[in-house]
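in:
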């Protein structure tokens, strides 16, 4: 089931926000980030938002996902950038306020049929991918 991620706001006084799920919950969770934008009161400065998570070796990594500036790029669409909780969003530079929004998907393991997914051939999986579109200028 999909739930709206109410989002969070990063500011000079609240530089980070962690999205996590109950450790005893055996469902699979995906957090998808849709948009990052400057909100009312932002200064014309670079606001860098980082995502802090864990890689495949369970090591913590920080990756910048947005560099917003009021005069040139106040909003960035991240096209449902998928993350595995727990994940922390941090304002690495700037004073914000920066608002992040998206959705949270919960897949209950008893509902998911992983065996069916394994039966798909690689060709079928490739056919389902959307075509790569050139960047809009």
């Amino acid at each position: 089931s999909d739930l709206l991620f109410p989002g969070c706001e990063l500011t000079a006084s609240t530089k980070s926000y962690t999205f996590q799920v109950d450790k005893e919950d055996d469902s699979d969770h995906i957090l998808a980030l849709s948009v990052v934008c400057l909100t009312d009161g932002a200064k014309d400065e670079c606001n860098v938002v980082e995502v802090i998570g864990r890689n495949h070796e369970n090591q913590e990594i920080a990756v910048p996902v947005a560099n917003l500036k009021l005069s040139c790029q106040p909003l960035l669409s991240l096209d449902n950038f998928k993350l595995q909780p727990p994940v922390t969003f941090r304002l690495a530079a700037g004073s914000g306020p920066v608002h992040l929004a998206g959705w949270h998907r919960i897949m209950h393991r008893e509902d998911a049929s992983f065996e069916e997914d394994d039966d798909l051939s690689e060709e079928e999986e490739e056919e389902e991918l959307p075509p790569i579109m050139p960047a809009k200028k």
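note: The chain has one domain: 2-108.
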